[in-house]
């Protein structure tokens, strides 16, 4: 119960890693206000958790929507201690096929969405020496072929994380990123386009367990650790949970 009495907001909680993070934080004692653009899915997550969870419709790419979930958490629980930015989208494709619309969609959710949420939450986190955990990716540390927009967005999340960690260090607000390799979630169940060289993508797979992908709970455990006081000396980290994918 490392998060007893804490209030957390989790984006992207209808599915995959976000759902596992919401469940883990609640299991550690936090009250969680969980958002997703998939309202049915996030309500299902809330029903799995019970009364510690409140489900909210959220589009992180919309500044007003991001502000609303933070306001709702503060209104309900009197403050905010933890922000977990997990919502994200993947868009595999050859670079020449990534038109401006596809580029903008990925950046607006994965990077601008994190900005919106951090910007709305920061005044509350400053008041309570809270912390932020941003979901980046191994693709935020190294390039992944056929993932130009996604890799750029996740490198951006790592940069934003490091800048905020330094700027808010005096206020005691910690800001960290988690960088998973492949995780067994619906995101990776989308069929990749046929015109890409899949062997190039698979060169950058996990080394642990013969390339086995992680479970969402493996990532949620790291998020909960970083959000807890056990990580009180950790800020500005881009914490790889990738089975060694980015080690060499
Ligand atoms: N699955 C992987 O292999 C992997 C690896 C590294 C990083 N990640 C990152 O982990 C995070 C979670 O991904 P996942 O694998 O659980 O995928 P997922 O598709 O299962 O979950 C993503 C969730 O984000 C929500 N979402 C998308 N756009 C949104 C928006 N604009 N506003 C609010 N919610 C939105 C979706 O509805 C969905 O519930 C993402 O940021 C992803 O980039 C995933």
Describe this structure in words.
This protein is an alpha/beta fold and 248 residues long. Helix content is 42%, strand content 15%. The protein has a single domain (7-241), classed as Rossmann fold. It has eight helices and seven strands, in the order βαβαβαβααβαβααβ. Strands 3-2-1-4-5-6-7 form a seven-stranded parallel beta sheet, sandwiched between helices. It is globular, with a radius of gyration of 17 Å. Nicotinamide-adenine-dinucleotide binds next to helix 1. Nicotinamide-adenine-dinucleotide is lined by residues 11-12, 14-18, 36-38, 41, 58-61, 86-89, 109, 113, 135, 137, 180, 182-183, 185-188.
The gist of it:
This protein has 248 residues and is an alpha/beta fold.
Strand order, sheet with most strands: 3-2-1-4-5-6-7
Topology-level CATH name = Rossmann fold
What profile does the largest beta sheet have?
Answer: 7 strands, parallel
The CATH architecture term is 3-Layer(aba) Sandwich
Write down the secondary-structure element order. Answer: EHEHEHEHHEHEHHE
Distance between the termini: 36 Å
The CATH class designation is Alpha Beta
Look at the structure and name the CATH superfamily: NAD(P)-binding Rossmann-like Domain
Query: How many strands?
Result: 7
Low-confidence stretches: none
Q: Give the helix/strand class.
A: alpha/beta
Please indicate the percent range of residues in DSSP E strands (runs of 2 or more).
5-15%
Q: What is the general shape?
A: globular
**Tally of DSSP helical segments:** 8
């Amino acid at each position: 119960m490392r998060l007893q009495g804490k209030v957390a907001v989790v984006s992207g909680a209808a599915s995959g890693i976000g759902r596992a993070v919401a469940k883990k934080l609640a299991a550690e004692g936090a009250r969680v206000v969980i958002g997703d653009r998939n309202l049915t899915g996030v309500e299902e997550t809330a029903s799995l958790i019970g009364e510690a969870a409140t489900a909210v419709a959220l589009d992180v790419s919309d500044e007003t929507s991001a502000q609303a979930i933070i306001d709702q958490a503060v209104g309900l629980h009197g403050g905010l201690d933890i922000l977990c930015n997990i919502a994200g989208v993947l868009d595999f494709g050859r670079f020449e096929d990534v038109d401006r619309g596809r580029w903008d969609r990925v950046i607006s959710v994965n990077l601008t969405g994190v900005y919106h949420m951090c910007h709305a939450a920061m005044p509350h986190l400053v008041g309570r020496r809270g912390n932020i955990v941003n979901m980046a990716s191994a693709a935020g540390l190294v390039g992944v072929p056929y993932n130009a927009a996604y890799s750029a967005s996740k490198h951006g999340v790592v940069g934003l994380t490091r800048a905020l960690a330094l700027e808010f260090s005096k206020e005691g607000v910690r800001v960290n990123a988690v960088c998973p390799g492949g995780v067994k979630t619906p995101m990776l169940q989308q069929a990749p386009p046929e015109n890409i060289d899949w062997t190039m993508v698979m060169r950058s797979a996990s080394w642990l367990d013969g390339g086995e992908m992680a479970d969402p709970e493996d990532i949620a455990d790291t998020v909960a650790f970083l959000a807890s006081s056990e990580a009180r000396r950790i800020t500005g980290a881009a914490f790889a949970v990738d089975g060694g994918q980015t080690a060499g």
